[in-house]
Amino acid sequence: MSSELGVVIPGLILFLIGLFIWCSETYSDAPIAGFWRDMSSDFYSKRGASIRRLAWTLAAISSGTGVLLNSAGAPHSLVLITVIFTFFFLLIAVLYFLPLPVPRCLDAQWQWHKRHGLIDENGKIIPPTPHQTNYCSYALGGETVTIKTSMELPDTWRALSLPNPKAILTPQVPPIVNATSAHPRSPLDDALFVAVGIPEKTTGFRPNFIVTIDLMGESPIPLDGIIPGWMTIEETRFPIPSDDTLMTTGLYVDEGLSYTVIQWTWTQAVSNRTVRLYATATATTTSINSIADQLPRMLETLQVIS
User: Where are the transmembrane segments (predicted)?
Assistant: First the structure.
């Protein structure tokens, strides 16, 4: 009996650790949870794998508990309950080799998307958009020109389907000088491409990246003439194949919350005409560092062609 316990007790401890890891992967964003999710990403890509793993773990824990109870002289009825639970969990594990729906409360992918604000109003996962492409048509030089805009996005960003984006993803934009209810002015009015990140936990604000176009190709409009209370921190040029580039970093305060904005602007030829493009990233000042490394890569992959 002692040799049997020498196997059961360490095994029970290992499966309890496995249950803790499963709960961390499913319900937590702690660094260790992210590590284990990366380790088991291929496993979780298979439908029902998360449920099978949980069921196997619970079956082992129930079985080991039953052995310990029996060794301790527990009532037979109590041991029988652990046996029933063991076979129940094994049955669940076998059934989930079939294409059965996974309960959302136990679905690691659904729980991750919920924590990151990527569940739509119908409770469905908003899928990744790593290679989104938008098409917009404009009257340019006496003819209608269709402009194709594409960008590669990180896993935690989602591109909006223009011109009718999902309401939950519609970004919050800065207040605009001289905007009225009759003539609202918004960066979304001239948007070629709009992407949003996951909402900040304390404020719920989603960082956003908006690409707009000025068909006249005029000089950049100073942001202090557009956003009330704008304060410029830095203006500099940035390396892209254009002689007319400007990167502006600054911040503004709206309803007591500070926002940081980074705007890149440049000119390029579209359908034999010089237009000006703007790529503007906005985040709360406290969260801008969390996306700062992602923005240059997003800008590098941006393509605007006719």
Answer: 6-23, 54-72, 78-98
Hey, where are the domains in the chain?
1-116, 131-305
Between the CA of residue 25 and those of 21, 41, 108, what are the distances in Å?
6, 10, 7
pLDDT band, residue 302 (cuts 50/70/90): very high
**Superfamily name and number for 131-305:** Mog1/PsbP, alpha/beta/alpha sandwich (3.40.1000.10)
Q: What is the DSSP string of 83-97?
A: HHHHHHHHHHHHHTT
Q: What is the pLDDT of residues 31-64, one digit of tens each?
A: 877 777 777 665 555 668 889 999 999 999 999 9
